[in-house]
Specification:
Length: 197
């Protein structure tokens, strides 16, 4: 039976995910072998296959863990007892911060999503759509109540913001001129300015 933790107490699945994330970021998904992942994680192939059925499953989980975190946080912002403008701003800033904090994961995913099996690809698209729909619902709420302008369709506003988020991996560098929160504040403010009536 596979051990659930390593000698330092880190669960094996997290150890495998950390090794896969580092290797996929450095070498690319398609140029990283299962053998390299298990050697970097200090486990056997049997341990990998005990927790993940394939390298594809690792890629799916790398993206899934960030999306689950972001969905949970978006749901909390959307359900908060605050004006819609504040809830949208908080959600818009949060997705930037959590993407930067998990930049390797996000970069790997957008660079390697086409490697997923058709079933997993469909599943990921559905999860992402659920997130975007919840975000769009905040915009629509503000538009219907007159807080936000209705001049631009809510779908286009969502695409505008997430286009910026999805490109963070191409230019953001830790230790640069702006902190993650500063980038988040600027992008959230841009979004809200675009929605002013």
């Amino acid at each position: 039976m596979a051990r659930t933790t390593d000698s330092d107490g880190q669960p094996v699945p997290q150890r495998l995910l950390a090794a896969a994330t580092r290797l996929f970021a450095e070498q690319g998904f398609d140029r990283t072998s299962v053998q390299e992942i298990v050697e970097a994680a200090g486990v056997t192939k049997g341990a990998l296959y005990h927790y993940f059925g394939s390298k594809d499953d690792l890629l799916h989980e790398i993206y899934g863990r960030v999306l689950r975190l972001q969905q949970e946080r978006l749901d909390a912002f959307a359900d908060a007892d605050a004006p819609v403008e504040q809830r949208l701003r908080d959600a818009a800033a949060d997705v930037v911060v959590t993407t930067i904090e998990n930049l390797d994961d996000a970069t790997i995913f957008f660079r390697s999503m086409h490697h997923l099996s058709p079933e997993k690809h469909k599943q990921v698209r559905a999860e992402r759509r659920r997130y975007h729909e919840r975000f769009r619902a905040l915009i629509e709420e503000g538009q219907q109540s007159g807080v936000f302008s209705s001049d631009t369709p809510a779908d286009l506003v969502v695409d505008y913001h997430f286009g910026s988020v999805h490109h963070l991996g191409t230019w953001y560098r830790p230790g640069g001129a702006l902190s993650p929160q500063q980038v988040a504040d600027h992008l959230a403010d841009l979004l809200l300015r675009a929605l002013r009536p």
